[in-house]
Each structure stands twice: as structure tokens, then as C-alpha cells.
Amino acid sequence: MNYHPTVSTFLVTGPHTVSMGNRGPAVLPHQALVFSSENGEPVHLPGRPSAFAARKFRYRYDVDISEHAVQWTEALPSGTGGFSFQATLEARWKVTDPRAVVKGNINTLASGQGIVCVGVRDMLWPHTGKFPLEECGAAEGFLRSTFGGQPHTLPAGLTVLNLIIRLYLDQDAAAHLRELKKQKWGIELVAGESQKKRAEQRSEAELLAEREQSIIEAAKSEGGLLSYLIAQDPTRLRESMEEITKRHDVTVRQKSELLKDLVNAKLIQPAEAQEFYHSIHQPESLLTTGSGVGTGSPPQPSALPGAIIPPRPDAPPRPRPGRGALDSATQKGAAPSNPRSPDAPAASNANGTTRLDKRRGPQGPSDA
To answer: Where is this region: Disordered (predicted)?
Structure first.
């Protein structure tokens, strides 16, 4: 505790001997008169006693009851172990009980100021310990509102009329507070990063669950396997769709259903689906361009039951109906159909122009 007396004067002057003819000077506005009786008990009188009453007193004391001010610094405990608040205090005080001052032998102004400083410290001490270092401002506000604007009477006969309080931290406490804040910020940063990671993991899990559900739903329809492959590697979407567009073993209807499934599964955008839809329904050109590629041969008509197909010019000669045709069919493993009886005329002899027993040889027809 360091206090600075404003003036170095006496607070109490005396004792002065009292008699009927020596009762002291007139009382000044800033003075109080205290007389001691024969048994030594001090008595405070508002003015000089009469000559007859002065016979009861032996000594007179003149007490200064004007206002005084003192400034000092004080270390007040904090709620953080090992560290204190530094307080700058300024008090205005005066003597309010001259008899107690005389009885307590508080004769000098310095002794009165010391009593004021100790009394204020003891008054503030129990309250500052409730606040940690980081609440220095809150502690100062509490002390000012509680003790700053009202008088406080001390047991020694002195009264603190007004008290100004300012709290601050010394270098060690400020460094400790910075370290505490740094640790707190680090903990909050780690907690924030952990919450961010958990949120990202939840979001990824939700997206994965939604994608899996979409794949399961898409797998129930046509093209489900392709939907699964596209979902696994979305970067190959266009390549996969172009490959499906070129495939001829998948019908246009299946391709359209596949596009709908991909849109419902949110694997492609509607605009992309529309683009692929146009490419699917666009017919290929009959004449393809490119080096070494001709117009191609037209497709052959499909064979219908009972239809007569004329032979091509470069086809080998076909065997005539008769035994040669029958033998050729038999050699190829086919069973002869509708065998002709010996008595029935041949198909080529229906008009009776050729005998049945005549065969055509290399030199013409001959008798059988």
C-alpha cells in the first residue's frame, strides 16, 4: 500500500490546560473542541464552556474536522489464484467523531490517512476475490456502484465521503490473461473445426445415402447397372451416354427410360437429358462420308412364306426337278418330300410329250 498525504499537519492539537480564566480561543468553523474530564474521559462540546463549567475539565483538544483527500495504490485479490488486481484509489474523508479521534490518539493527518487507506482496503477486499482476471472491468463497475457514491464510517471516528476506484492489471497478470485467452481461443478453434468436420461428414453421409437410394431405385428399372456406374464416376457421364447412344442392341424406348432414371436419380441435369434424347432419336444417314467407304449394298428383303425369289445373275445353276434334285437333297441330309410313285407322270411330262422311260443323256434322250 502506497499513500500520499496531501499536507503534513496535525489533526489534533493539544492538550491545553483548562481553567476558569483560560478556556481557549473561539471555535473556528473547521474545528471541534474536546475536553477531558477529571477521570480522563473525553467530552465533545459545541463551543467553549462557561467559567463555572470549565472547573470540571482539565485539558482541551482542538480537532480538525475539515475535509481531506488521499490517493494511493492497492493490490486487491482476484478470483484467479496467484494474481491480483491493481487498484488506484482516491478518497475524500473527514473527522466525524472528534471524541473517538482524541481517545484513539490520532493526532496527525498522516495517521488519519493511514487509517482511511486500511479501512478502504478491508472494505473492498472481500468483493474483488469474486472476479477472475478476465472480469476486471466488471469488478471495477461493481466496486464503483457499491462503494463509490456513498459515505462509509470507519470505527476510528473517520468517515470516507467519496471514493474513486480504478482497477487494472500488472504485467504478470496481463501476460497470464493473454495466455488464458490464447488457450481459450485454441480450444474454441479446435471445437469449431471438429463441428465443421462433423457437419461435413453428416452432409457427405446424407448425400451418399441419397445416392445409394437413387441407385437402388434406378437399378429396379432398365439401365440400372449403367446408372450405378455413372454414379460411381460422374466424370464419365458423357462418354457413357455416347456409348449407349451408339449401341444398336438397346431400343430407343430403353434409352429413353434410362434417361428418365438418370434424371430422377439426379445424376444428370434435364438439359443434358434433352441433348442425349435428341441424339438418340436422330436417325443415321444412309450415305456415310469418309475415305474408302462406299454407299453399301441395300439390305435384302426378308423371306416370306410361299414367295418366289428370283436367283441372282451370279448364282450357280440349280438342279432341275427330278431324280437329280432328289439325289442332291438326299446327299445334303434332307428327307425327300412327296415321293413320286412309279406309275405317276413326272412334272415335266404333264402334257404327255415326253415318255417316262426316256432319259436325257449326253447324246440326247435314250431308251431306258
So the answer is: 287-368
